[in-house]
Design brief:
The protein is of the alpha/beta class. The chain is about 40% helix and about 20% strand. The protein is built from ten helices and ten strands. A six-stranded mixed β-sheet has the order 6-7-8-3-9-10, with helices on both faces. A four-stranded antiparallel β-sheet has the order 2-1-4-5, with helices on one face.
Amino acid sequence: MIRFDSVFFQYANSPVLENINLEISEGELVALIGLNGSGKTSLFKMMNGLLIPSSGRVFVDEMSTKEENLLWKIRKKVGMIFQNPESQIVGTTVEEDIAFGMENIGVPRDEMIKRVDQVLDFVKMKELKLVEPHRLSGGQKQLLCIASTLAMHPKYVVMDEPTSMIDPISRENILKTIVELHKLGKTVLFSTHILDEIVIAQRVIYLRKGRIVFDGSPIEVINSVKEEFGTSEFVEFQSVLHRHGVIEHLMDVEGLSERLVKLCQSSLKK
């Protein structure tokens, strides 16, 4: 379990997160939403000790991120994928990039070779094993970051806006990959400011100005955040439902139902 106990965080004198009390149980698929600047990235960075609370505590399987001697163990449990894949790619080939993290934690060579093939097969990039990362598309680079993280066998997979810098086809591939990860039993958290992406989640946590203002199911948040996200964002969400054949005509928020969300979830999982 990942647990936040009365967490506050600020940069200089500017509050970023305020009074965060939160529990993420094993096996959950959680979407974290909120407008830019709401604190999503900061909250995620606290899950593996990249940021430490100004007050309060964050626990990963009962290990506090404030205990420096535990940070190595915590970071092995919580794998992070950042918004910009360029910031995580270090290898000269796809294969070398995936192997890099495993070398740092002393994974035996035979096991590394096995894991490289396994994760590349999972993200459907086996044929790109020897390709230089700079030749990959934006979506492929993000999948490479996911593969490199999975090769470390983390218990929790945390993705900070993984679809924000890629094309629509790659975005759907990333969403399908998130669903498949969850099917394999991983605890997966991803952040987004794109409203339609929450349909793949079991649970949605909504941040506004550093505070949790909603924690519930996708259908509940759909019925509550139209004004916060604005007309254009909401119309985009309706359009996604329309493209998937879920609704014949665009409709007002009150017309959406749990059945529609389930239909949209099914279309993403195919």
